[in-house]
Structure formats: C-alpha cells, structure tokens
Design a protein that fits this description.
Length: 363
C-alpha cells in the first residue's frame, strides 16, 4: 500500500480511537494516543512500535470491519511498523530489503554466504577440507581470518543499527530529556518480558475465541536462545583474547554449556513461532511482513541447527565442512540483522522508553 494511503488510514484509526477510548486500559498505545490530538508520521511510527500486536483491541472494537469505519488497529500498526523500519534504516538505499525478504531469499543468501566462506577458506588454506578428528577449528580457517571476516561485517551491522536507531529516536523523541537509567531499565524489563503482549489475560490471542500462552513461550525460547548463544560466543572470545585458551572447549565449559542450551532454545523457538504465525487470524497481522518473519526465523533456526551439529560432530571427519556451513549461515544472519525482523525489538525498546518519558511528563 502506498505510504500516503497507509498514513491516512492510520490517522483515521487513531482519530476514531481517540474519540472512542474504549480500549484505554488495554496497553500503553491507547493512553499514548490520548496524549495527542494529531498524528504525524513520527507519532505513528512511535505508536506502531509501542504496539505488541497482541490483537485484543481488534476483537473488542465495535468499529472493526465490516463496520464502515474499518478500524483494525493491530494490522494497521503492523503495516506502519514495517514502514518505520524502512524509513529510518541506513543506508536508505537498502530500505526495500525489508520487503524483498522471504524464505527463498534467506536460502539464497545463506547459500551465497556459505559459498563465499568456502572460497575464502580454500584460498587461505588449500588443505582446509581434509578430514580431521581433532576439532581444531582454527586449523580449518585461521583465527585471524575469522576475526577479520566477522569483525568487519559485525562493525558494519553495529554502525547500520546505531544510525537507524538514532534516526528513529530523534524522530519520536526530539531530545533525550527524561530518558534516565531508571526509565531505560523499566522499558528493557517490559520489552524482554513482553509485558504488553497480554493486555487482557496471561494468554496470547491467536483468534477471536482462541488464547494460549504459546506465542509468548516460543518468543522467550528464541530470545533467550539468542542471548545465550551471544553470551557463549562472547565468553569464547574473552577466553581466546585474554587467556589464550583456544577452541575447542570442553563439553562442561561455559561457552559450550551456554551455546548448547541457547542452541536448543533457538531451534525450538523459531519452529514454534512459525507454527503460531500460521494458525493466527490473518486480520491481526500485516500480510506483507510474512516473508520478513519467515526469513529471520529460518536463518535463526539454521544457525542453531548447524551450530549444534558442529558441536556433536566436531571430532568427526565432517567437521571442516560443518564448520564452514555454520559460519556461512551466521554470516548471512549477520548481514540481514539491520534489514530484517531483528530490528523490531530495538525499535520497541525505544518506543517503550519514549512512552515512559511521556507518562512521567504528564503526571
Ligand atoms: S480499537 Fe475500536 S474499540 Fe478500541 S479504542 Fe479504538 S475504536 Fe474504540
Ligand atoms: S494489538 Fe494489543 S498491543 Fe497493539 S494496540 Fe491493540 S491492544 Fe495494544
């Protein structure tokens, strides 16, 4: 849908909500609507990322389709949310990447990344693929090459995310007044626990008469798994850089235990989320975002599965191939982070911070 049409439709929905106010107890979105009399693009981007797409307000709404007002807040805000990712991303020329993602794009990108990692490795080390049973990862791809490859991509990803978030924050907040450490902590806690995903009960809505806790549980498994895998990689990097302890690490070591538990979470969480998304009422979501969600979940799942396989088979002859496949998938995941579903958690955190600041100011 053209941006102007979406903006007009979102303004219309917010204006009706502002008059109606029936849902004001549901979530922070409605009190935030009430603090405004008009809704420009930045206001809508703020409200859209504050919404957790719980879906309750659609089924409560007397003005929802087929009513002529056609108010569908969850879907409208989901569409604005996707548009906000494009609007503030850096470099802007890659904004369309949000729309072009899908499962096949993810598979293609992962294939290209894997091929690139294989080509670089073979060039640096012609005997890299020789069968070996010593789990010596750096004998396949030297540590310096691994750090150079992932460090440069990682720096670009951090820069792209930082610029995008700065642009978004500047648009919705104008300055940092009121954003204290306490506010950041409260927003982080609400974001991580998905507090506003359950506005009417502890269950998540999948259809008008269907509520289960599974959407939240799968999300927690995915987020927790991602966090543990990140912690595992960080500790391994500290081991190597500060103590000179090289991989592979024992099965009882912190990097392996954290990576294994995180990998299991990252394996079951994305499958569960994908399943919940399939069975959810289509009226609650933006159909244009299905590919974005699917691509991100697939890359997370491939990262965890290849990582767990590498862990289990690290002393087998297949180790070198598994290592390079895993690194290729991780590289593809890294490259899509600033232009994929990953950004939703960061934008939501900033929207929660802004909401806390506004609430404090209006007391
Ligand atoms: S979603 Fe519907 S019922 Fe809820 S405040 Fe908006 S117009 Fe009113
Ligand atoms: S979908 Fe849920 S979180 Fe979003 S505006 Fe409606 S009630 Fe609030």
């Amino acid at each position: 849908m053209p941006a102007v049409d979406l903006q007009r439709r979102a303004e219309h929905a917010m204006t009706v909500c502002n008059s109606c106010r029936y849902c004001e107890q549901y979530c922070p979105v409605f009190p935030a609507i009430e603090r405004r009399q008009a809704f420009d693009a930045a206001d809508l981007a703020f409200l859209a990322n504050l919404c957790h797409n719980c879906g309750e307000c659609l089924y409560a709404c007397q003005y929802a389709p087929p009513h002529p007002f056609g108010v569908d807040v969850p879907r409208t805000l989901a569409e604005v949310r996707l548009q906000s990712y494009e609007e503030y991303c850096w470099p802007r020329v890659l904004a369309r990447a949000f729309h072009r993602q899908g499962v096949w794009t993810a598979i293609g990108l992962a294939s290209v990344s894997i091929a690139t990692v294989f080509a670089v490795t073979r060039r640096l080390n012609p005997s890299a693929l020789d069968a070996r049973t010593d789990a010596a990862f750096y004998a396949v791809l030297p540590h310096a090459a691994m750090v150079t490859l992932f460090g440069s991509v990682g720096l670009f990803v951090v820069l792209a995310l930082a610029i995008a978030l700065r642009r978004y924050w500047r648009a919705i907040a104008h300055d940092d007044t009121g954003a204290t450490w306490r506010v950041w902590w409260c927003a982080l806690r609400e974001g991580v626990t998905l507090r506003h995903l359950h506005v009417a009960s502890h269950e998540c809505v999948s259809a008008e008469e269907s509520r289960t806790p599974w959407r939240r549980r799968w999300h927690h498994a995915t987020l927790g798994g991602f966090g543990l895998c990140f912690a595992s990689t960080s500790i391994a990097a500290i081991y190597h850089a500060m103590f000179g302890w090289e991989a592979p690490y024992a099965y009882s070591s912190a990097p392996v235990v954290l990576g294994t538990v995180g990998g299991v979470g990252l394996t079951v969480g994305p499958i569960g989320q994908w399943w919940e998304r399939r069975r959810r009422d289509a009226a609650l979501s933006d159909p244009g975002q299905g590919g974005l969600d699917g691509a991100f979940l697939l890359l997370l799942w491939l990262t965890s599965v290849t990582g767990l396989l590498l862990l289990v088979l690290r002393t087998q002859a297949l180790m070198a191939i598994l290592l390079l496949v895993h690194l290729g998938v991780v590289l593809a995941l890294f490259l899509t982070l600033p232009y994929g579903k990953f950004v939703h958690g960061l934008y939501r955190l900033l929207a929660l911070v802004r909401d806390h600041v506004e609430r404090q100011a209006s007391r």
